[in-house]
């Protein structure tokens, strides 16, 4: 304080104050929620809207409230429980992650960043999110929303680009308070601001808590230089065919004959490619020469005979 004047609140303070008054009431933000629940939520929220994650998250935690509970079940059941949430490899990765937590950490989600990063299927974003939101640590948690907020408000640019770079982590960390708990709160606040107000297509700048210090707003809110990214087409893609094949296998109580899978899509070449992709991704496994099932859904499958 100089001459009796109060110092201006920091960027993080402004956003955190807004967050404390406006944050959505989500189950993984409830007081006392555990690290396992936060880890599950972060994996489910990857490329998936909150509205779709909510029922899946609640059902998952009701069935597998701990890593040990999931690790004791099969990968096939994880895929079944994942349902139509999308990107089902995440279910298999969560199962593998749970098994590693049991084997390496006695069933407790680790609190050290290096140990989180060493878990299968846990990347830079997820590890930092768990460390910050579950354990109140000071780490930059950078997703698409956070990158957009920092890029606009601090750098004055309209778009942060398609992928997180090391510079994004540095720029975000510079905004975090020194105190770990305050930094963790700010990380959640940055994310919420990008999701609710500083959106890609229709930012609600008049309601933004940092509009007065936003470099992008001060510059006149220039439009992105490149084309705006559009949602990927789904109908007729291999993703759709994979989803149809998985739907049949999820509902089956045993191995599914190849002829049954042939009925889900008329294009044989695309269908075979989608099925091969499911096998390569560790979601589906062959049983003998003419049947398939979800991975781990029963006794170990016999090896396919070699040619010749």
Question: Gist?
Answer:
The protein has a three-stranded antiparallel β-sheet with strand order 1-3-2. The chain has 308 residues and is mostly helical. The relative contact order is 0.11.
3D architecture notes:
The protein is mainly alpha-helical. It has helices spanning 11-22, 35-44, 50-63, 67-71, 75-82, 89-105, 113-117, 124-133, 144-155, 166-173, 180-196, 215-218, 238-251, 258-262, 268-280, and strands at residues 256-257, 284-287, 291-294. The chain folds into 2 domains: 11-196, Endonuclease III, domain 1 (Orthogonal Bundle); 238-294, Orthogonal Bundle (Arc Repressor Mutant, subunit A), CATH 1.10.10.10. The protein has 15 helices and 3 strands. The chain has a 3-stranded antiparallel β-sheet with strand order 1-3-2. A hairpin with a 3-residue loop joins strand 2 (284-287) and strand 3. The model is unreliable at 300-308 (pLDDT under 50).
């Amino acid at each position: 304080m100089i001459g009796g004047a109060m110092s201006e609140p920091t960027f993080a303070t402004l956003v955190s104050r807004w967050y404390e008054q406006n944050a959505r009431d989500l189950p993984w933000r409830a007081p006392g929620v555990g690290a396992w629940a936060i880890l599950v939520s972060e994996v489910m929220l990857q490329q998936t809207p909150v509205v779709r994650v909510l029922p899946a998250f609640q059902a998952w935690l009701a069935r597998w409230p701990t890593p040990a509970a999931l690790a004791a079940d099969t990968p096939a059941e994880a895929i079944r429980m994942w349902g139509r949430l999308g990107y089902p490899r995440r279910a298999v990765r969560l199962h593998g992650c749970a098994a590693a937590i049991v084997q390496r950490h006695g069933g407790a989600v680790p609190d050290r960043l290096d140990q989180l990063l060493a878990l299968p299927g846990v990347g830079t974003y997820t590890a930092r999110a768990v460390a910050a939101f579950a354990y109140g640590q000071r780490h930059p948690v950078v997703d698409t929303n956070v990158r957009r907020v920092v890029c606009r408000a601090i750098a004055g640019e309209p778009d942060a680009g398609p992928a997180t770079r090391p510079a994004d982590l540095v720029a975000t960390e510079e905004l975090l308070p020194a105190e770990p708990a305050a930094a963790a709160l700010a990380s959640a606040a940055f994310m919420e601001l990008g999701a609710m107000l500083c959106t890609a297509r229709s930012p609600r700048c008049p309601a933004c808590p940092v509009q007065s210090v936003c470099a992008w707003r001060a510059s006149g809110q220039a439009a992105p230089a490149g084309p705006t990214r559009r949602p990927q087409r789904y109908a007729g893609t291999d993703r759709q065919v994979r989803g149809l094949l998985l739907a049949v296998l999820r509902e089956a109580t045993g191995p599914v004959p190849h002829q049954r899978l042939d009925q889900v899509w008329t294009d044989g070449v695309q269908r075979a490619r989608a099925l091969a992709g499911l096998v390569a991704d560790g979601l589906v496994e062959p049983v003998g020469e003419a049947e398939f099932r979800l991975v781990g859904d029963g006794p170990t499958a016999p090896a396919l005979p070699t040619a010749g």
